[in-house]
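Appendix B, example 12.
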Amino acid sequence: MLAGERSETMTRLFTFRSRFGLTAAALALAAAASGCGGDDDFSLPDWDAPGQNARIGDIMIRYAHVAEPRGEPWQPGDDVPAYVWLYNKGSEADKLVGARTPNAASVDIVDAGGKPLSGGLDLPANKLVELEPGKAHLVLRDVREVIRGGDFMKFTMRFQNAGSITFNIQSQIPAYDESPSPT
């Protein structure tokens, strides 16, 4: 091979690689913009929220956590609130029908006033349902041991269609007031 032919072959190779790289980058960008992909296509506002994330079927579980203890750790016998965001990415409705943890006698799904929702909690298709203070949420009834901020425990959520998933849930670490004390 002559030097000129080698130079022309190298130029073609670099041109091919550049075009291939640009095409691959364009396809990746198009896939990201169109919402194709796995868990990465579900985004929430960028904020420092506590909690664990998980997924089962079409149900995205975000920010699952036990409420932070107030003043002292949660004590055996306490009823402890737990919060989570549930997003049903599916085309059909689902329902949160139960939850459990070995750290409590039971886990109830309750309405904003604390009344148990015996029929579960509806999760409409393509909707975000926020289980938070002042809204429907979970309550760990009669916790069996001390729960300090930062402690983890096994937690299982059961959905009518998606099935059950077990993951670790954390007790939110208390955020103490750091404002200057009056003197």
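Residues 3-34 form the longest helix (32 residues). The first strand starts at residue 52 and ends at 56.
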